[in-house]
Amino acid sequence: MLIDWFTVVAQVANFLILVWLLKRFLYRPILDAIDAREKRVASALAEADAKKAEAQKERAEFQDKNEAFDRQRASLLSKASDEAKAERQRLLDAARQAADALAAKRHEALRSELQVLGETLSRRTREEVFAIARKALADLATAGLEERMVEVFTRRLREMDVAAKAGLGQALASASAPGVVRSAFDLPEAQRAVLQSAVNEAFSAEIPLRFETAPELVGGIELSTDGQKLSWSIADFLATLEKGVGDLLKGNDMAEAGVEQASAAKGDGHGN
């Protein structure tokens, strides 16, 4: 078989032209498009990686901020709780102090009232006993109460202890002013003369006397000079009664104070 070289050459030339045309107008645009697409994909992937990294960074920052916010919130809550406890304790202390002050004021008012009551009771007791004694002695004796008082005082003057009598006599004798005779009532002249005579007789000397009235003696007579004195009165017999009333009131005060202390201790226990 004979080879037509012209045809072969023409076909080879056509093939080469076709390859060149395909490369020029088909393969090159496709390759360029593929390269461009790969570059776009790579760029998109790089941008996605950058955005992912940025998102992770923002997420980490958000977590840090969230943790910082939680710590700050816990700190604020703890601080607010401590402040609330401190304020509660302050209010409790203030209320306790106010209650203690009120209790002390009430106790002081009660003590003052009891003191006034005790003084009033003591005074009224003296007055009533004196009135009863005056009436009883007036009913039972032919002489008045004043005479009886003078008799009792002169008897006590005669029965004085030797040392006490000597001291009083020396004070009366050496005094620059007259001795003072104080009585709960105004002594009549006859009773004054009896007392003057009894004093002169007791101390064997002329003792000048000055007579005064002192209602607080409550039915009694007192002879005094330069710090020395001799006295007798119904008040002496009422002293025991007055002391008993005072002890009773004092006992009530102590009982009230004990109750208040127990209440305060109980309140402290509940507060704590």
**What is the global morphology?**
rod-shaped
Helix-residue proportion = over 70%
Report the sheet-strand fraction. Answer: 5-15%
Distance between the termini: 127 Å
Quaternary organisation:
single chain
What's the story with the biggest beta sheet?
Answer: 4 strands, mixed
Main traits of this protein?
5 helices, 272 residues, 8% strand, alpha+beta, rod-shaped
Q: How is this structure best described in words?
A:
The chain has one domain (62-272). α1 (5-140) packs antiparallel against α5 (234-271) and α2 (145-158) runs parallel beside α4 (189-203). It is of the alpha+beta class and 272 residues long. It is rod-shaped, with a radius of gyration of 61 Å. It has a 4-stranded mixed beta sheet. The protein contains 5 helices and 4 strands. The model has no long low-confidence stretch (mean pLDDT 78). 79% of the residues lie in helices and 8% in strands. It starts with a helix and ends with a helix.
What's the helix and strand layout?
Layout: H1 5-140, H2 145-158, H3 162-174, E1 179-183, H4 189-203, E2 209-213, E3 220-225, E4 228-233, H5 234-271
Parallel strand pairs: 1-2
Antiparallel strand pairs: 1-3, 3-4
Helix pairs in contact: 1-5, 2-4
